[in-house]
Amino acid sequence: MGAVAPHLTLNSAAGQVDVPHREGRPVLLVFFQEAGTPTCTTQVASVVQEEETIAELGAVAICVSTDPLEQQRAFAASLGTTRIVLASDPDGSAARAYGVYDEVARRARRAAFVVSGQGTVLLALPWYNPLNSDQLAQLFLQLGLGDGAEDTNDG
């Protein structure tokens, strides 16, 4: 952690998006394998379910796969989200920049990163499991959820 985040400019249904964010907002950057498949739907839906919390933290979520932009638009519509950005990385260059491109499958692995508004990688989960609640909690802690709050974890 603490490394400078690779700069990305990606196309999305909302237009071009940048990582680090051009307005200096923290970014939850999530790579997924394929739009509309069961596990990837679970993965992206877990982010969509937290879109209000992400906005309250002043962050932006960008979910990326190698799927074409039209497929990302349809996937976003099926999830009912307009706040979470689904971006297209058709050549895998963004996934390669973050070290999560699977050359054999020719797509990104499931991975998640938190990038600060200043462009520093605060958390890297290069083997993200969308069913692992501890990993999801780590992402939100790095985005600022729980700052100044009491730890109520008994474990």
Notes on the protein architecture:
With 155 residues, the chain is α+β, with helices and mostly antiparallel strands. The protein has a domain at 28-124 and 133-143: 3-Layer(aba) Sandwich (Glutaredoxin). Helix content is 28%, strand content 25%.
Please render the helix and strand layout as text.
Elements: E1 8-12, E2 15-19, E3 27-31, H1 38-48, H2 51-56, E4 60-65, H3 69-79, E5 85-88, H4 93-97, E6 101-102, E7 107-108, E8 111-115, E9 121-125, H5 133-143
Parallel strand pairs: 3-4, 4-5
Antiparallel strand pairs: 1-2, 1-5, 3-8, 6-7, 8-9
Describe the structure using short key phrases.
155 residues, alpha+beta, seven-stranded mixed β-sheet, two-stranded antiparallel ribbon, globular
N-to-C CA distance: 25 Å
Helix-strand category: alpha+beta
Q: Biggest sheet: strands, sense, closure?
A: 7 strands, mixed
| CATH-derived topology of the domain at 28-124 and 133-143 | Glutaredoxin
Q: Residue-averaged pLDDT, rounded?
A: 90
